[in-house]
């Protein structure tokens, strides 16, 4: 566990294991413990780095929230840990951070996994979607509702309770980040991504549904799309076994291709 100063913001990170580096970037509202099951799975063969985004977990608050700032924080941690290149895995908002990082330092990235994310929210639903979540944010039971909609429909109470425990930001930080990611648009840069990309989403993800994942895959030339069964928006929680196996298989393929 440690902290890095990134333009005056104290950014929290964890490192487990040794070997080739993988950086895991969490979703809006969560904290780096979201990845605990992935850390456990990958740490025997990889150096696993998890990071708390600005305003999340143990990282300082920073309003207004900007995805670009978070990507810079990831670069700062790579620099601090003397990591030349890493695999990047981002879920939801973490996927936006991964794409922003690619625009910033493409030479520092070996591969990208984009899970349950999108290039942009379609114009015709953006305002309605944004305002509905902001209204939900005002409710006393917001965290419970956040957890419920983050996992798949029909999830048991044990998984929902576990997800509640992974919430990691104030309502003010959540609001600022939510407004930001409702206005990101990576559509025009996707065809510039020139490295292996795994696009994944849950078959029951109604926040970032399959059609948004398909758009990513269709516009990133070295990409493929995998669906995770019986999984919602936080697919790594809904079905960690399948999530881990798909990422591990992808990374093995990437490393094999780099050796030939």
Automatic annotation (TrEMBL):
Q: Which UniProt keywords are present, listed alphabetically?
A: Hydrolase
Highest taxon in the source lineage: Bacteria
Please give an example of a GO cellular component term from this record.
Answer: membrane
Domain AB hydrolase-1 residue range list: 21-144
Task: List the SUPFAM superfamilies.
Answer: alpha/beta-Hydrolases
Gene Ontology molecular-function annotations: hydrolase activity
Extract the InterPro entries matched here. Answer: AB_hydrolase_1 (IPR000073), AB_hydrolase_fold (IPR029058), AB_hydrolase_sf (IPR050266)
Has the keyword Hydrolase been applied to this entry?
A: yes
Recorded hits in Pfam families, A to Z, give: Abhydrolase_1
PANTHER family per the record?
Answer: AB HYDROLASE SUPERFAMILY PROTEIN YCLE, MONOACYLGLYCEROL LIPASE
Q: What is this protein called?
A: Alpha/beta fold hydrolase
